[in-house]
Design goal:
Elements lengths: L8 H10 L3 H15 L5 H7 L5 H10 L7 H19 L2
Length: 91
């Protein structure tokens, strides 16, 4: 599917002065918001933006201050740390 957006010339010029590749910026903005609202998965985001690695997706999400780190993730990491410390303390 192709989507066309019509912008007044002055607004387009202003946006292009900030983002050199305005069509790419618009696509990334749409993709990031779709991911944020859970309309897209990380795999779909990667495919839509033609990224080769998950690290590129993570960098984009970080740049937009989207962090998928829940309280459950924190608790799992804390438990893993406890287990590692217990193992290290054993002779």
């Amino acid at each position: 599917m192709q989507i066309t957006i019509e912008l007044p010339e002055d607004i387009a010029a202003k946006l292009e002065s900030k983002w050199k590749d305005l069509p790419r910026a618009a696509l990334e903005s749409l993709a990031v918001e779709a991911y944020r609202s859970r309309a897209l998965t990380a795999a779909q985001l990667r495919r839509l933006l033609v990224f080769e690695t998950r690290m590129q997706v993570d960098a984009l999400l970080k740049a937009h201050e989207i962090f998928d780190y829940s309280a459950a993730d924190f608790e799992q990491d804390r438990e893993t740390l406890r287990e590692l410390r217990t193992r290290e303390a054993r002779p």
